[in-house]
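[Q] Does anyone have a clean structure-token version of this?
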Amino acid sequence: MEKVVERFLRYVKYDTKADEASATCPSSASQMILAKDLAKEMEEIGLKEVSLDENGYIMATLPSNIDQDVPVVGFIAHMDTSPDMAGADVKPQLVKYEGGDIVLNKKENIILSPRDFPELEEYVGRTLITTDGTTLLGADNKAGIAEIITAMEYLIQHPEIPHGTIKVGFTPDEEIGRGADRFDVEKFGAAFAYTVDGGPIGELEYENFNAAGAKIIIHGRNVHPGSAKNKMKNSTLIGAELAGMLPSNETPGHTEGYEGFYHLNSIEGNVEETKMNYIIREFDKNKFQERKAAVQSVVDALNEKYGDGTVVLEMKDQYYNMKEKIDEVKHVVEIAHQAMEEVDVKPVIVPIRGGTDGARLSYMGLPTPNIFTGGHNYHGRYEYIPTFSMEKAVEVVVKIAELCAKGQ
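[A] Here you go.
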């Protein structure tokens, strides 16, 4: 199991930052570099039918070692890292945590502190892998890749552990919402799968937000301010007005658990034109429709006030709550729950306050709940992952394979 750490430390050296502005797949050339090396490594450890397509999707098979016919199970992770933070020149640090603050970068005075992240105190006596404070770490989702490959290698090296046919899949561009775009479910050939893409140890997730994106363009009219009375139409002020018409307490900074939100993700503009990008999130399908209708209502009200065509809204659904699909095959969650208990990990069932490849794959005919990698504080300089949690994730994957072989 210790190989999982060695693999992870190697993978994070690849800069696989996704690029939302790119029209290619994968969106960054460096993802393909990692993909080629992963495909080679998977062949070397003994996986079969290893394939890498032109879009950066990797698939491989671990053949069954039992006589009985059992459903094929898959394990999936993504290769890209978030565009929210630099992912180049990652310098991981191994820290034996004895409590208190961790100085990530003395020169820049960057400190990982339990005052800001109290869950750190749960890992006193454990070894943590941190950043050096200048980049993200990349546990989302290179930890998942390392854990899946290590689990497959362990099963190959321990043929006494029974397992059916197992499929492995690694995807590009999950962080920019494209991870499932070109995933060939039929080729993958699994009855169900698990993304190994969750957070702290024990997380087991089969619910996620319904999601929509709203692109808003506000058209203004610029006139010299000295003679602008009753003539100027300032698009930036209309944008501020629009933001103020949505509930101020229903934003990411004010919500948790099953509470949805409106999130103003970006705004830029001048008097003539302002562009706003919102994301809309809600677990309940009916409330999701109500949130979208509320945005439309605000836009309609502003157009009535300032003139038709002043505010142009383009709203598009992005993904849906996988719970609707997972409930049809709830035993898939029960297998993961039992696997965690059998390797002394306490299952923590929580909703995903975001999206995952698994959400879209579930609607593409591949039910795919999500299990933990062990990481914390994804997408930023304070990201870390306990090595203990990574080793337990490997054990969970192995145990899921074993339970599936027993028809459980």
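[Q] Thanks! Anything notable?
[A] The CA atoms of residues 1 and 154 lie 8 Å apart.
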